[in-house]
Amino acid sequence: MILKQFRTFGLFGAAFIVTFMLSWFGGSDGVLGGQAHANTHCDPANLPNYQPSSADDEMDRFYALMAYAVVYKRWQDSSPSDGAAGYNIGSVMANESNQFVCWACNSVGATHNSTQHGEVRLMTNYLNQEALNNPSTEGEFHLQGYKIYTTLQPCAMCSGMMTLTNLEATIYGQTDPSYGGALGRLQYNSSQDPGGYCPYPRGVYHQLADVKVASILDDMYANWSKTNGTDITQFLTTPQVQALYEEATNQFMAFEAGFAENTQLVAYAKQIYSDIPDGYVPTPYGVACDLTQ
Q: Which of 30, 53, 107, 157 shows the greatest Cβ crowding within 10 Å of its Cβ?
C-alpha cells in the first residue's frame, strides 16, 4: 500500500516538477524562453513595404547585373584559405533615387577579418564617408530608402546590419541554402507559439534577382553540391561560375534603360564601373563610394 502511494506520488510529483521547470525556464515568463506573445498583436509596420514601380524594377535588374560585374572584375581563382583576398561575393548600393552610391567586395582574406563581408564593407564605407563629408550635420546614420544588390543571399551578420540601418530592400543574385534566409527568419511571426515573438522591427524586403543568371546559378549549385559538397564559396571559384559572371557583365554593359528617368542613372553607374580596377586591389574604406551627387 505504501509502495503504491509512493508510486502515485512519484508520477504526480514528476509531472509537477516538469510543469514547474517549463514555466520557469521556457514558459511565458521563463528565464530562458523570454516573454510569450501568444496574444500579442504584432505591428504590421515591422514588415517590409517595398512597392517598386516598373522603373524601379528595371533598375533592380540593372544593379543586380552590376553586382555580378563588380565581382567579375576582381575575380579570385581560389579561396582565402589558399591566399585569395576574399570570396567571390560583392555588392552595390543605390539611394532612394535609384542612384548608385557605393560598391564593395568580400575582403576577409585581405583584412584577415571574418567580418569583412561585402555588404558590411558597403554599408560601413558609405555611412563613414557620408559622415566625414558632412561634418556639420549628423550625416546619414541610417539607410532608409536605400537598396543593396548582392551576388549571394545575405548571411545573419549582414542581415542584422541591414535591418538595424533600416535598409529598404536587398536583391540577391544567388540563394544560399546554408547561411542565407536570415532576413526571412527575422520577419517570421512566431507570436502564437509559446515563447514566440513578433517579427523584428524594420523589416527589409528581400528577393532573388529577376535576372536569368540568378536562376541558372541556383540550379547549377544544386547539381554541383550533389557531388562536391555544400561549400558555396568553393562553388563560386569554379570556371563555370566565372563564365556566368562574365555573361552577366556583358548584359550589364549592354543594358539600355527603357524608362527615360533611368537613362542617366544607368550611364552614371557604367561610368563608375569603368573606374573599378581590374583584379583585386586592396580598397580602403571609403574610396569605393561616390557621394558627390
A: 107
**Domains along the chain?**
34-274 (3.40.140.10)
Grid coordinates in use for 253?
554593359
For the stretch 152-174, pLDDT in tens is 999 999 999 999 999 999 999 99
- φ, ψ for residue 231 (rounded to 5)? -75, 95
CB 120 within 8 A of CB 70: no
pTM to 2 decimal places: 0.84
CA–CA gap between residue 25 and residue 34 (Å, rounded): 8
The DSSP bridge partners found for residue 208 are 172
Residues 6+ away with beta carbon under 8 Å from 94: 59, 63, 100, 101, 146, 147, 149
**Burial environment of residue 191 by CB neighbours within 10 A (0 to 12, 13 to 18, 19 or more):** middle
Closest by Cα among 224, 288, 291, 278 to 72: 278
Residue recorded with cell 514547474 = 20
**Amino acid in the structure at residue 143:** L
